[in-house]
Specification:
The complex is a heterodimer of chains A (about 325) and B (about 80). Chain A is an alpha/beta fold. Chain A has 13 helices and seven strands. In chain A, strands 3-2-1-7 form a four-stranded parallel sheet, sandwiched between helices. In chain A, strand 1, helix 2 and strand 2 form a beta-alpha-beta unit. The longest helix of chain A is centred in the middle third of the chain and has 29 residues. Chain A is globular and about 55 Å long. The longest helix of chain B is centred in the C-terminal third of the chain and has 17 residues. Chain B is globular and about 40 Å long. The chains are: A alpha/beta (about 325), B mainly alpha (about 80). At the A-B interface, helix 6 and helix 13 of A face helix 2 and helix 3 of B.
Chain lengths: ~325, ~80
């Protein structure tokens, strides 16, 4: 698309059959030839990304050589497990349910998190709920620092700005969840001689919306090149049930309902996809504003936020760095 | 201010070369967590309170902006 052109939503159109064929072929090559594994394990959350990845793996390897790992914990939404069952049932994929609450409790995930919360809210105890949120990027230039939101058992909400230490401590404790799930996935992958398939879409991968060595860890990431809008298009083609396709994206990580926008992304995915596409193709904010129904100033804010997230999360993409190369370990064919 | 930044963040091989009007965020020196660290240090060191509504680039984006912001906050407190 030429610089100066006006953006329209159809730039994200894709041919779902061709996209599916390409991913399925690549999955077979990567898993079978490069990784030399005979199937795939993946975490199933009942969300759109894991549902599409599950469907693609089932096509690539046959449903019987895919294993879905359903790993709820005490803060998971009640719908998570039911929808996850719908996914594995739809695609005929074997699955295991691994409740990770005991592991998280043993690692003091909840206790460490709650100790930090009580620095701000001494009354916080069982029966209270929490989430962490960011300020909106639209309409203001406020730095996007984390705020804690707690809700008492009688429904009263409080909002507190976190210090740097508190912010890091809550996120670090919560990251046990993604890392524990990945540990379980790799257990099953090792046992079955399968690869682990990761489920990030392009927004998540590009913007670093993942936990390093948690949900960011995988042997193959089949949909990381697809904008979320395209993942939805693929979901329809692949037969992902409608109740999953219409469910708003959620983090399903904190005990209060938390949208992906309020925790990490600045906009609903439909708009952010278009902004990211435009930014990636060198389009100016003026060319995007109408399509996303935002002011030019707000689109410029979104562009800056995209760049800021890339800077902040760059290290999450890095593998271990060596002081000197070890020439005998040759990954040039990988 | 420069000593705090140099102690807590990576300013490159020549910390003294950081200009007063350089964006600390766009230069990759501080991120959102760094902003929170900076606020904590400003509040502790200068005895000021930074409101949520003041977490703006015009107050915190560069050394010059931070200095101006702290001076405004201290003079407002002195006048009160």
């Amino acid at each position: 698309m030429a610089v100066g052109a006006r953006l329209t939503p159809d730039v994200l159109e894709l041919d779902p059959a061709a996209a599916t064929d390409r991913i399925v072929a690549e999955l077979r090559t990567i898993v079978g030839k490069t990784l030399r594994r005979r199937g795939a394990v993946l975490g199933i959350s009942g969300g759109i990304d894991s549902s599409v990845t599950c469907a693609l793996c089932a096509r690539a390897f046959g449903p019987e050589r895919v294993l879905g790992v359903l790993a709820p914990e005490t803060d998971s939404e009640t719908e998570t497990l039911r929808l996850s069952h719908v996914v594995v049932s739809t695609f005929g994929v074997p699955y295991v349910v691994e409740n990770i609450t005991p592991i998280l409790a043993a690692a003091r995930c909840y206790e460490r998190r709650d100790e930090t919360v009580r620095e701000l809210v001494p009354a916080f105890t069982s029966g209270w709920k929490l989430k962490v949120v960011l300020p909106d990027v639209v309409g203001n230039d406020l730095y996007r620092v984390l705020f804690l939101v707690v809700e008492s058992p009688d429904g009263r909400q409080e909002r507190h700005r976190l210090t740097a230490e508190q912010s890091l401590a809550i996120v670090a404790a919560t990251n046990f969840k993604q890392r524990t799930r990945k540990m379980i996935e790799y257990y099953h992958a090792d046992r079955l001689n399968y690869a682990v398939a990761g489920t990030p879409n392009r927004l998540e991968y590009d913007q670093g919306f993942f936990v390093k060595n948690g949900d960011g860890a995988a042997d193959v990431k089949p949909i990381a090149h697809l904008y979320k809008t395209q993942v939805y298009r693929l979901a329809e083609y692949l037969g992902v049930p409608e109740e999953i396709r219409v469910r708003p994206p959620t983090t399903d990580t904190y005990s209060l309902p938390q949208s992906q926008e309020e925790f990490f992304f600045s906009l609903p995915y439909q708009k952010l996809d278009l902004c990211l596409y435009a930014h990636n193709h060198g389009l100016r904010a003026e060319a995007v504003a109408d399509a996303v129904e935002l002011s030019v100033t707000d689109v410029e804010r979104v562009f800056r936020d995209i760049e800021q997230k890339r800077r902040t999360t760059r290290s999450l993409h890095m593998s271990s760095r060596l002081v000197e190369p070890v020439a005998e370990i040759d990954l040039s064919d990988a | 201010m420069r000593r705090f930044l140099a102690t807590n963040f990576f300013l490159g091989d020549d910390p003294g070369s950081l200009s007063g009007d350089a964006s600390l965020v766009e230069a990759g020196i501080i991120d959102s967590t760094g902003i929170l660290e900076l606020i904590g240090w400003l509040e502790d060191t200068y005895g000021i309170q930074v409101a949520d509504s003041e977490l703006l680039p015009e107050n915190l984006e560069s050394i010059e902006n931070i200095v101006r912001f702290v001076e405004q906050k201290r003079s407002a407190r002195g006048a009160a």
